[in-house]
TrEMBL record, chain A:
Every Transketolase-like pyrimidine-binding domain range: 4-179
CDD domains, per the entry: TPP_PYR_E1-PDHc-beta_like (cd07036)
One Gene Ontology molecular-function label: oxidoreductase activity
Protein name: Alpha-ketoacid dehydrogenase subunit beta
The UniProt record lists the keyword Isomerase: no
Keywords carried by this UniProt record: Oxidoreductase, Thiamine pyrophosphate
Superkingdom of the organism of origin: Bacteria
Species: Oceanobacillus chungangensis
Cofactor(s), by name: thiamine diphosphate
Automatic annotation (TrEMBL), chain B:
Segments forming a coiled coil: none
Lineage, top ranks: Bacteria, Bacillati, Bacillota, Bacilli, Bacillales
Record protein name field: Pyruvate dehydrogenase
This protein's record includes keyword Oxidoreductase: yes
Cofactor: thiamine diphosphate
UniProtKB/TrEMBL annotation, chain C:
Acyltransferase is among the record's keywords: yes
Name of the protein: Dihydrolipoamide acetyltransferase component of pyruvate dehydrogenase complex
Record has Transferase as a keyword: yes
Keywords for this protein: Acyltransferase, Lipoyl, Transferase
Domain Peripheral subunit-binding (PSBD) residue range list: 124-161, 168-205
Length: 326, 330, 442
C-alpha cells in the first residue's frame, strides 16, 4: 500500500468528502492560497474555489459562530483553528452554543461541525502556540474530541468526524504532520469511540494519546529488551471514550501508565485513571496507576527546556519500571 | 390600500395582517406581564427577561419575514419568538418546565427556539447569536437560498467582540443578514451613554462598510420600513445592514432588579408618552383600519389566547428523569 | 506561602512523637524560634520551635496524639494562605540518616506488617492481591510483600496460597483447625515431612484469657510504648548470653571514701560507686575493644570512643543518657557529668544529643536488694553491664572465711558479635580492676 503523511491524509480525507458532498466546506485563517499555517489545505482552493475554501479574517469567535450557524442551518462546516491555543477566543461559540444548542432546544436542530486544530509542543513556538488543551473540551457535554496519532487513523477519524452530526474537536499534533504510514486511497471511516491497541503486551498497559503513542512505542521497544512486555492502547477519541478496551487491557496486565502531553494537573489522564479505579479493572490492579503529563508551567522556548516540559521516552520507561517495582 | 399609504408604510401590507401585528403586540405584552406575575408568585422558577415596552421592534422586524427567513434571538426573546410565529402555549409550557414546551422543559425562558418557524433560538450569552446569524446567512449564500437572517441583539451586545467580528465577516462576504440592534438604553444596569462614546450604535456600521440606520423602535411603521429595506438589500446580495431601533424596557433587567440606575420619571415618560402599542392603535384608528371597539376586541382575543396558553402549560406533563440524558448528542 | 511545621526526628530511633501541649492557637502569630508545641519522644520531652515566621494557620493534631516523624503537624503562612484540610506528606529524612537507620527501618517495617496481621484492611496490598485473597478465602497473614514498603502484590499472595495448599496436614488436624479458626499456614508441623498433626494444632491454640476481676488497663503509649517496642526488638533479635561474677569491693569502698570530700569540694557532687564502676569499665573496655562495639546491619563496628550509656529509671519508663569519652575523664569531671545527666533525665530535660552515641551501657540496680540479673542489650551496642548491690558476704580468703563487701556484675553480650571467651576475659579484667581500683589513678 502507498504511504501518506499525516498531513496529506488530513487533506485527502477532506478533499474526498468535499468532492461528493457540497454541504462540506472549510473555513479558517490563511487556508486559501497560503495553504494554512501548516500547509494542510495547500492546493485545495485551486480545486474547490474560494467559496468552499473560505479564507477568513482573524476572527476566531466569528468563524466559530459562523460555523455553528451554518451547521444549524444545513451546512457541514470544517473550521480550521490555526493553533489550538486560539480556542480561547472561540470557546464561547464552541462551549456555549455548539455543544448545547440541541440539548437546550429540547432535541431540535443539530450542529454537524468539525474544528480541526494543530496542537502540541516541539516546534519552538513557546507558550501561546504549543499547548494541548483537549481536556477543556473533553469536559463539555455535547462535544466530541478526537486525537489521532497516525496517518491511517487521521484519515479514517476525520471521515467519521465529518459524518458526525455533532460538533467534533479534532486535534492534529504538529509533530505528527510529517509522519507517515500506509493509508488506503479510498474513503474509510474509523468510528469515534473505538480505541486501537497499537502494540500488544502482557505486563503493563500504557494508555497514550497523539504523539505520546509514538513515544510509548519507542519505550516499549526498549523495555522489551529487558523482558518487559508492554501493551499500548491509543484511545484515539477522548469523547466518546472506549472505556471497554482500556478496562480489558488493564484487567489483563494489572498495571496502568497513562501518558499525554497536556499538563498533568487536570489533564485527561486523570479521567482515565479515575475511570479505571471505578471500573471492574480495579480489582486487577497490581500497582498504583502512574500518570505522565506536561509539567505545571507554560511551554518554554528553549529547546531543551521545551523537551523537559513534556514526557519523553525515558520518563515512560521509568514509569513502567516503577509499576513493576523494577 | 388607501389606508396603507396613510400609515406611511413602504411595503404593501393588508389590513388583516396589520390587525394581526397589533394582536401580536398585545400577546407579547400580556405574555411578559403574565410571566412577571408568575415569577413573583413563585409559580415558575429560574430567571426571565421581559420585553414589555419593546413590542414594536420584535413585531415590526418580523412583520414581513416568511417561515423560511431566520432570526436569532437573545435572552430577552419572548417577543421575538411570538413575532416569528411562535406559539404562546408552547412558550408558556416551556417556562413551566413541561414536556410540551418548545424545549421539552430543558431550555426555559432563555433558550426558546422554533426551527420550523425560522427561529434559530434565543442565546443566553450576550452577543452569542451574532456570529451564529452570520453562519445562517452563509448557508443561504452558499446554498443560494432566498432566505434572510435577522439577528436581534441589544445595545450591550454591540460592545462584545463577537459583534465586531461577525459584522465584519458578513460585510466582506456580502451575506444576507440584518443586524437588528434593540437599543433599550441599558445593558443590565449599564447605561448605553456610559458604555459607548458615540451617539448612535448604528454609526458603527461605517467601520465595516455597511449602511447603518437609526429608527424609533417604538414606532412599528418605522421598524417595518427599515427592516423591509434591509432585507430587500440582503436578498439582492448587497450585504448586511445595521439597524438601531431606540426603545425602552419597562421592566427591570431580570426578575430581581431594583432599577436604581434610572429614574422613575424616565420610566414614566416612556410608558405614558412612547407606548408602542398605544401609538400603533392610534395610527390604525386614524387610518380607519380598526375602530376603538375592534381594537379592544383584538386585545381581548390576545388575552384569551394567553389564558388558554397558561391553561395548556399548567395541564401539561412534567419531564421524567429519563429525559435527563436525551439529546446531549444527535 | 504555606510553610509546614513537621514532627522533628529527634533521634535515630524516634518514629513518633506524642503531642503534649500546644503553645499557639490557630490564628496566632509565630516568630522564628518561638516554641509552637511540646512533644514527648521515646526519650525526652521537647519544645518544638518554629523555623518560620507567620500565622499559625492550621493544626492537624490534638494533645495526646501520636504523630509520625516528618508528618505535617501544622501550617504557618500569611493571612492570605489557605492550609489544606489534610496535611501533605513530607519526604523522609535525608539519605545519610536513612543509611544509618537502615536496620531499624527494616525492623519497623516488619513490625507494621506484623501489626496488621489480623485484618486485611490495614495491610498494604494491591487491589489485585486483595482480589486473589478474597477469591481464595484467605488473608494476608504471614504474606511477605515484595513491593515498596512491603506492599503485597498479586504474585506474593499467589505464592503464599500455593505454599499453604502444599502443606501436609492430617484430616483430623484440618478439622480441628477449621473448627477453631486456626490458620494451618501458621502452624509448624511435627509429623513426617513436616505434616501438621492434631497435637500441632492443639499446641498452637491461644491460651484462653479469662478476665474475672476488675483490672487497670494502661495503654502502651508515649515513652512506655517506646520502651516496650525497643525492649521487644532487642530481646527478640539479639542472642543474649549473660555472665556473672562476684567482685570484692573492699578497696573500691576505700577509694570512694578517700575521694568523696575531694570531689565534693571541687564539684559539690558526691562521687558514687556508679562513677567508679564507669571509670573501671571504661578503662577495661580500652583493653577489650571488641566489647565496645556496635552491630549495624552486617557489620561489627569497633568504636574508638568509649561512651557509656547510663540507664536511668524515670516515671513509667527508662531512658539512657550517654556520657562521652569516659576513659578521658577524671573522676571529678565524670561525677559532674553523670550527676547532671541523671538529673536532666529524671526531669525530662535531656537533649537528643545527650542520648546519642553510647557504645556500652551500664544498668545499676544496686540501690535495691538485687545481686545478679540479665540486662537487655541497648542495640546497636553489643554488651551491657548489670550492677547489683554491695552486700557483706562470707567469702574465703587465703583459706579463711572472712566477711567482705561483695557486688555481683552481670554482663549480657550479643553472641553474634562477641564470643564467650573474650566476654569472660573482659568481665574478669573488670572484676580485677574494681578489686584493685588504685590502678585507675595511675
Amino acid at each position: 500500500m502507498r504511504e501518506l503523511t499525516y498531513l496529506e491524509a488530513v487533506r485527502e480525507a477532506m478533499s474526498l468528502e468535499m468532492r461528493k458532498n457540497d454541504d462540506v466546506f472549510l473555513m479558517g485563517e490563511d487556508i486559501g492560497v497560503y495553504g494554512g499555517a501548516f500547509g494542510v489545505t495547500r492546493g485545495m482552493i485551486e480545486e474547490f474555489g474560494p467559496e468552499r475554501i473560505r479564507n477568513t479574517p482573524i476572527s476566531e469567535a466569528g468563524i466559530a459562530g459562523a460555523a455553528v450557524g451554518s451547521a444549524l442551518t444545513g451546512m457541514r462546516p470544517i473550521m480550521e483553528l490555526q493553533f489550538s491555543d486560539f480556542i480561547t477566543i472561540a470557546l464561547d461559540q464552541i462551549v456555549n452554543q455548539a455543544a448545547k444548542l440541541r440539548y437546550m432546544y429540547g432535541g431540535k436542530g443539530k450542529v454537524p461541525m468539525v474544528v480541526r486544530t494543530p496542537s502540541g509542543s516541539g516546534t519552538g513556538a513557546a507558550a501561546q502556540h504549543s499547548q494541548s488543551l483537549e481536556a477543556w473540551v473533553a469536559h463539555i457535554p455535547g462535544l466530541k474530541v478526537v486525537q489521532p496519532s497516525t496517518a491511517y487513523d487521521v484519515k479514517g477519524l476525520l471521515k467519521a468526524a465529518m459524518d458526525d452530526d455533532n460538533p467534533v474537536i479534532f486535534y492534529e499534533h504538529k509533530l505528527l504532520y510529517k509522519t507517515s504510514s500506509e493509508v488506503p486511497e479510498e474513503e474509510y471511516s474509523i468510528p469515534l469511540g473505538k480505541a486501537d491497541i497499537k502494540r500488544e503486551g502482557t505486563d503493563v498497559t500504557i494508555v497514550a494519546s497523539a504523539i505520546m503513542v509514538h513515544k510509548a512505542l519507542e519505550a516499549a521497544a526498549e523495555l522489551e529488551k529487558e523482558g518487559i512486555s508492554v501493551e499500548i492502547v491509543d484511545p484515539r477519541t477522548l469523547v466518546p471514550l472506549d472505556t471497554e478496551t482500556i478496562i480489558q487491557s488493564v484487567t489483563k496486565t494489572g498495571r496502568l501508565v497513562v501518558v499525554h502531553e497536556a499538563v498533568k494537573r487536570g489533564g485527561f489522564g486523570g479521567e482515565i485513571a479515575s475511570m479505571i479505579a471505578e471500573s471492574e479493572a480495579f480489582d486487577y490492579l497490581d500497582a498504583p496507576i502512574k500518570r505522565l503529563g506536561g509539567i505545571s508551567a507554560p511551554i518554554p522556548y528553549n529547546p531543551e527546556l521545551e523537551k523537559a516540559a513534556v514526557p519523553q521516552v525515558p520518563d515512560i520507561i521509568n514509569a513502567v519500571k516503577e509499576t513493576l517495582n523494577k | 390600500m388607501e389606508q396603507t399609504k396613510s400609515l406611511k408604510l413602504v411595503p404593501e401590507i393588508s389590513d388583516e395582517k396589520l390587525k394581526d401585528l397589533y394582536k401580536q403586540m398585545w400577546l407579547i405584552r400580556y405574555f411578559d406581564e403574565q410571566v412577571d406575575q408568575f415569577f413573583a408568585k413563585g409559580m415558575i422558577h429560574g430567571t426571565t427577561h421581559l420585553a414589555v415596552g419593546q413590542e414594536a421592534t420584535a413585531v415590526g422586524a418580523c412583520a414581513l419575514l416568511s417561515d423560511e427567513d431566520k432570526i436569532t434571538s437573545t435572552h430577552r426573546g419572548h417577543g421575538h419568538s411570538i413575532a416569528k410565529g411562535g406559539r404562546v402555549d408552547k412558550m408558556m409550557a416551556e417556562l413551566f418546565g413541561r414536556t410540551t414546551g418548545y424545549c421539552k422543559g430543558k431550555g426555559g425562558s432563555m433558550h426558546i427556539a422554533d426551527l420550523d418557524k425560522g427561529n434559530l433560538g434565543a442565546m443566553g450569552i450576550v452577543g452569542g447569536g451574532i456570529p451564529l446569524a452570520v453562519g445562517s446567512a452563509l448557508t443561504a449564500h452558499m446554498k443560494k437560498l432566498e432566505y434572510v437572517t435577522v439577528c436581534f441583539f441589544g445595545d450591550g451586545a454591540s460592545n462584545e467582540g463577537s459583534f465586531h467580528e461577525a459584522v465584519n465577516m458578513a460585510s466582506i462576504w456580502d451575506l444576507p443578514v440584518v443586524f437588528f440592534c434593540e437599543n433599550n438604553q441599558y445593558g443590565m444596569s449599564g447605561n448605553v451613554k456610559e458604555m459607548t462614546n458615540i451617539e448612535n450604535i448604528a454609526e458603527r456600521a461605517a467601520a465595516y462598510g455597511i449602511p447603518g440606520v437609526v429608527i424609533d423602535g417604538n414606532n412599528i411603521i418605522e421598524v417595518i420600513n427599515a427592516t423591509y429595506e434591509a432585507t430587500e438589500r440582503a436578498r439582492r446580495g448587497e450585504g448586511p445592514t445595521l439597524i438601531e431601533a431606540k426603545t425602552y424596557r419597562w421592566k427591570g433587567h431580570s426578575k430581581s432588579d431594583a432599577k436604581k440606575y434610572r429614574t422613575r420619571e424616565e420610566e414614566k415618560d416612556w410608558r405614558e408618552n412612547r407606548d408602542p402599542i398605544k401609538k400603533f392603535k392610534e395610527e390604525l384608528i386614524e387610518a380607519g383600519i380598526v375602530t376603538e371597539e375592534e381594537a379592544e376586541k383584538i386585545k381581548q382575543e390576545a388575552k384569551q389566547d394567553l389564558d388558554d396558553a397558561v391553561q395548556f402549560a399548567q395541564d401539561s406533563p412534567m419531564p421524567t428523569l429519563d429525559d435527563l440524558l436525551t439529546d446531549v448528542y444527535a | 506561602m504555606l510553610k509546614e511545621v513537621f514532627m522533628p526526628k529527634l533521634s535515630s530511633t524516634m518514629e513518633v512523637g506524642t503531642l503534649l501541649e500546644w503553645f499557639k492557637a490557630e490564628g496566632d502569630t509565630v516568630d522564628v524560634g518561638e516554641p509552637i508545641f511540646e512533644i514527648m519522644t521515646d526519650k525526652i520531652n521537647i519544645e518544638v520551635e518554629s523555623y518560620e515566621e507567620g500565622i499559625l494557620l492550621k493544626k492537624y493534631y490534638e494533645v495526646d496524639d501520636e504523630i509520625p516523624v516528618n508528618a505535617v503537624v501544622a501550617y504557618i503562612g500569611d493571612k492570605n494562605d489557605v492550609a489544606p484540610e489534610t496535611p501533605t506528606a513530607i519526604e523522609a529524612e535525608d539519605e545519610t540518616a536513612a543509611t544509618a537507620d537502615a536496620p531499624e527501618a527494616e525492623i519497623a517495617e516488619n513490625a507494621i506488617n506484623e501489626e496488621s496481621l489480623d485484618t486485611n484492611e490495614k495491610v498494604r496490598a494491591t487491589p489485585a492481591a486483595r482480589r486473589v485473597a478474597r477469591e481464595n478465602n484467605t488473608t494476608f497473614n504471614g504474606v511477605q510483600g515484595s513491593g515498596p514498603k512491603g506492599r503485597i502484590h498479586e504474585q506474593d499472595i499467589l505464592d503464599a496460597i500455593n505454599n499453604k495448599s502444599n502443606k501436609l496436614v492430617t484430616p483430623l488436624a484440618a478439622k480441628i483447625a477449621a473448627d477453631q479458626g486456626i490458620d494451618i499456614a501458621e502452624v509448624h508441623g511435627t509429623g513426617s515431612r513436616g505434616k501438621v498433626v492434631k497435637q500441632d494444632i492443639l499446641n498452637n491454640q491461644q491460651p484462653q484469657t479469662e478476665v474475672t476481676e476488675e483490672v487497670e488497663r494502661i495503654k502502651l503509649k508515649g515513652l512506655r510504648k517506646a520502651v516496650a517496642d525497643k525492649m521487644l526488638q532487642n530481646a527478640q533479635s539479639i542472642p543474649h548470653v549473660t555472665l556473672t561474677t562476684d567482685v570484692d569491693m573492699t578497696r573500691a569502698i576505700e577509694l570512694r571514701k578517700a575521694l568523696l570530700p575531694v570531689i565534693e569540694s571541687q564539684t559539690s557532687y558526691r562521687v558514687s560507686y556508679t562513677e567508679i564502676i564507669m571509670k573501671a569499665t571504661a578503662s577495661t573496655l580500652k583493653q577489650h575493644p571488641r566489647v565496645n562495639a556496635s552491630l549495624i546491619g552486617n557489620e561489627i563496628i569497633i568504636n574508638k570512643s568509649i561512651n557509656l550509656g547510663l540507664a536511668v529509671a524515670v516515671e513509667d519508663g527508662l531512658i539512657v543518657p550517654s556520657v562521652a569519652n569516659v576513659d578521658k575523664l577524671g573522676l571529678a569531671d565524670l561525677t559532674t557529668v553523670s550527676k547532671e545527666l541523671g538529673a536532666k533525665a529524671r526531669h525530662n530535660k535531656l537533649t537528643p544529643d545527650e542520648m546519642k552515641g553510647s557504645t556500652f551501657t551500664i544498668s545499676n540496680l544496686g540501690m535495691y536488694a538485687i545481686d545478679g540479673f540479665t540486662p537487655i542489650i541497648n542495640a546497636p551496642e553489643t554488651a551491657i553491664l548489670g550492677v547489683g548491690r554491695i552486700v557483706e558476704k562470707a567469702v574465703v580468703v587465703d583459706g579463711s572465711v572472712v566477711v567482705r563487701p561483695i557486688m555481683v556484675l552481670s554482663l549480657s553480650f550479643d553472641h553474634r558479635a562477641i564470643d564467650g571467651a573474650p566476654a569472660a576475659a573482659f568481665l574478669t579484667e573488670l572484676k580485677e580492676c574494681l578489686e584493685n581500683p588504685w590502678a585507675l589513678l595511675v
